[in-house]
Design a protein that fits this description.
Helix content is 50%, strand content 14%.
């Protein structure tokens, strides 16, 4: 739907189902007539929506109505506002519309005569709606068609089925997850091992059948040998009785032997299938994690992801064990024993089953009450691991600032959350299981009484009763364990669901199906009207355009938050642009394969990350096939060879996590050697010398001069002196490219770059742009 230019009215809204319930909402019954009396025509508004806050921060329904030539804000009159219309803005007077996020909510604002005017306020629950309104109003200001329809009612931050808020857009709703589908996916993962699984389950059935034999032997022992007259059988002489006794004992031994062999074989098969499925799941999750974009890792802590890869996947092995010796085997046992019980005495079997309906109803009730609590347990454990990972990773900072006690307190809070979450579940389980056991015992007492009467007065063979009572234990014991099925199944589904959440997360950076090929030595880089924000509604870069020729050395300067590092993220395609495009040799990076981009673009970071291992392995990380001679040549070019050879083991020197054992300058030079060996045609230097001393900086600068020779280079730096020899310098401010030129050209312009250089020269030898406040003369 869009505003019409002929009569000033939008087209008819049509049926309620064909319009947006959020952006074309109905006004309250009394508000429309009030607006009519004040000269407004609400049906003329093509956009009608409401907020839950007024501009004073109080809770009040306030409506925004947008007509082709104006917008206005309306609400019921009160002591302060005597009229229904509280604000009216003509479209010709509005230059820009934006949303501004605050604490607990935000504001919709309009730029009028150079000043942003607050149109209305909204809480966080309405933020998604007004971000959509912002986009509609921008199109309205540009006199472009404004399309509004039912699709605008979709909120990616809420579950489409139940409306429960989601942690992140596109997350799986934990309330609406299809648990049956989770089990189907688990069984699908067993398909490659279906032959072993079939043998395993066949042995389970045979093992259950073998387990029923001993009670039948006991029945024969009593009815044939020990008390034949009571069962109506002729008595045996002493010799025959002994033979019977020996035969029954031998049969019992054979039964035990066969059962042991079956159980051992089944356990080995279960171990093989279970560990293999766990391996497959863990590999799939890790593989998928490596395919996900950097934006995914902005959501979760390392500890949470570690828990999902290591702990949650382990439940797959437990699932297979439950099939062979756990709940599935117990279900089959209950069915088989129940059939034998009915064969022995249907009357006693009926009394045996009396507690079963109560048990099943209790299990369903228990499932509904306890399932949500198990997710809380998993969440608590993940947060505990996240807290532990954070503290151990930053232990030097903790000790440097004497915050051990504070971190102990915070860890204690996380650990207490785990404790309380477990108690909340286990206290309920502790009451449920004994109650179920009592129900089973009541059924057993009834069987004892009724069965005894049948033996005494109805002629039931004593052996049949003894066998029945023996089988009764085999029936109630697994049935009692089945009451814990809800506990295990809840734990399993929770952990498996958390694992599948990762597998179901679509990569934010989608790879093209038919990637274009880069030339052998690409080098030209172009940004074309690029707009991007980590939060799409708060762009960091705003319409940036520039070109870097092959082999050109370009510096990038600006204060923190101006968007320098964001340029790197977009060129390396860690994120995709919101608008515009980034090109390498004229090809949009979205049309290139990820492998081509990684081969074309190399990065030397401000904080070099070295892995636990040898220096040689760290230098050769990007080219594992590199020879020692190539590694040494790269290290020499990076001015790293001399300090490496001062170590007794040279290139085989083992360094700790994050390069522990090397100084900051040494780590940086190893990082440069790694980039040099990788030999990318486009090199990005992100504050490569900002965290080192002057001597190390000189060595690194000398290495960088060799590294950048003949390569397209983008160098980001706070120390402006390091950019003097760049072919060109780009000056970024507030997400805009405000200046560009050589060092001398920018000084001659006496703009922002000139002021930055002047302030650095006056204040300190090596200041940081972060500390500068530039006042225009």
């Amino acid at each position: 739907m869009h505003p019409s230019d002929d009569d000033g009215r939008p087209p008819a809204a049509g049926s309620a189902e064909a319009r947006s319930q959020l952006l074309q909402a109905d006004l309250p019954p009394g508000l429309g007539p009030l607006l009519h009396r004040e000269g407004f025509d609400p049906p003329r508004a093509f956009l009608r929506t409401h907020t839950d806050l007024n501009l004073e921060g109080g809770y009040e329904p306030v409506y925004l109505l947008v007509e082709p030539d104006r917008l206005y804000v309306a609400a019921a009159p009160n002591e302060r506002w005597k009229s229904a219309a509280r604000m009216v803005l003509q479209r010709a007077d509005v230059r820009e519309v934006r949303t501004r996020q605050g604490v607990g909510g935000g504001f919709l604002e309009a730029l009028v005569e150079g000043v942003y005017v607050e149109i209305l306020a909204y809480s966080n629950t309405r933020s998604e709606t007004f971000h959509k309104v912002e986009q509609k109003l921008k199109a309205w200001l540009a006199a472009a068609p404004v399309e509004i329809g039912p699709e605008d009612d979709e909120d990616p931050r809420r579950c489409a089925q139940c409306g429960m808020p989601l942690d992140f857009k596109g997350d799986t709703c934990r309330r609406c997850v299809n648990r049956g589908a989770v089990l189907v996916r688990v069984f699908h993962m067993m398909r490659p091992y279906r032959k072993r699984a079939a043998i395993m389950m066949s042995l389970v059935l045979v093992g259950i059948g073998v387990a029923l034999v001993p009670q039948q032997l006991v029945r024969l022992l009593i009815n044939k040998v020990l008390a034949p007259e009571q069962a109506g059988n002729p008595p045996l002489d002493e010799t025959v009785a002994v033979y019977w006794l020996l035969g029954l004992v031998g049969s019992l031994f054979g039964t035990y032997l066969i059962g042991a062999l079956i159980n051992g074989t089944t356990a080995r098969l279960a171990s093989f299938v279970g560990t293999q499925i766990t391996f497959d799941m863990r590999s799939r999750v890790f593989h998928h994690l490596t395919r996900l974009g950097v934006a995914f890792y902005d959501r979760y802590s390392v500890g949470q992801l570690m828990a999902r890869v290591s702990s949650d996947t382990e439940h797959m092995k437990a699932f297979v064990q439950q099939l062979t010796s756990g709940f599935l085997a117990q279900l089959i046992t209950v069915a088989a024993v129940g059939a034998v019980l009915f064969a022995l005495s249907w009357k006693l079997a009926f009394f045996t089953l009396l507690p079963a309906p109560l048990v099943m109803l209790s299990a369903v009730f228990f499932w509904k009450r306890v399932y949500p609590r198990y997710y809380r347990v998993s969440d608590a454990v993940s947060k505990l691991q996240s807290r532990l990972n954070t503290v151990l990773s930053g232990v030097r900072v903790v000790k440097a600032f004497g915050q051990e006690q504070r971190e102990q307190t915070r860890f204690g809070q996380s650990s207490g959350y785990v404790r309380d979450s477990y108690r909340n579940v286990e206290y309920t389980v502790a009451m449920f299981n004994p109650a179920m056991g009592l129900l089973f015992q009541m059924g057993g007492l009834i069987v004892w009484f009724v069965g005894g009467r049948q033996v005494l007065y109805e002629g039931m063979p004593l052996g049949d009763l003894i066998a029945f009572l023996g089988l009764l234990g085999m029936f109630y014991q697994p049935l009692g364990h089945l009451t814990q099925l809800t506990t295990w199944l809840t734990q399993f589904l929770t952990a498996t669901q958390r694992t599948f959440e990762i597998l179901d997360t679509s990569p934010q950076i989608l790879q093209t199906q038919a990637p274009q090929a880069l030339p052998a030595k690409p080098g030209a880089v172009r940004f074309e009207n690029v707009t991007f924000g980590y939060n799409r509604r708060e762009p960091i870069l705003k319409g940036i355009s520039f070109a870097v020729e092959a082999g050109e050395h370009v510096g990038v300067v600006g204060k923190s938050g101006s968007g320098k590092t964001t340029l790197i993220n977009l060129l390396a395609r860690f994120y995709d642009v919101d608008d515009g495009c980034v090109r390498i040799d004229g090809i949009d990076v979205r049309d290139l394969s990820e492998d081509d981009i990684r081969r074309a673009v190399g990065i030397v970071l401000q904080e070099p990350f070295l892995f636990r291992g040898t220096i040689r392995a760290n230098i050769a990380y990007g080219r594992t096939d590199a020879t020692l001679e190539q590694i040494i040549a790269a290290a020499k070019s990076a001015n790293a060879h001399d300090f490496i050879m001062r170590h007794p083991l040279g290139y085989d020197t083992y360094i700790g996590e994050r390069g522990a054992g090397l100084s900051g300058g040494e780590r940086q030079r190893v990082s440069i050697a790694r980039a040099l060996l990788y030999d990318p045609p486009i090199l990005i230097l992100d504050e490569a010398t900002s965290n080192v001393d002057t001597e190390s900086e000189q060595l690194i600068q000398a290495a960088l001069q060799r590294v950048t020779e003949g390569r397209t280079t983008l160098a980001i730096a706070h120390r402006l002196s390091t950019l003097r020899h760049c072919d060109r310098i780009l000056v970024i401010d507030g997400g805009h490219l405000v200046e560009q030129g050589s060092h001398q050209e920018l000084l001659d312009q006496q703009g922002l770059y000139y002021r930055l250089v002047k302030i650095q020269t006056d204040l300190s030898r090596e200041p940081s742009v972060d500390a500068l406040t530039v006042n225009k003369p």
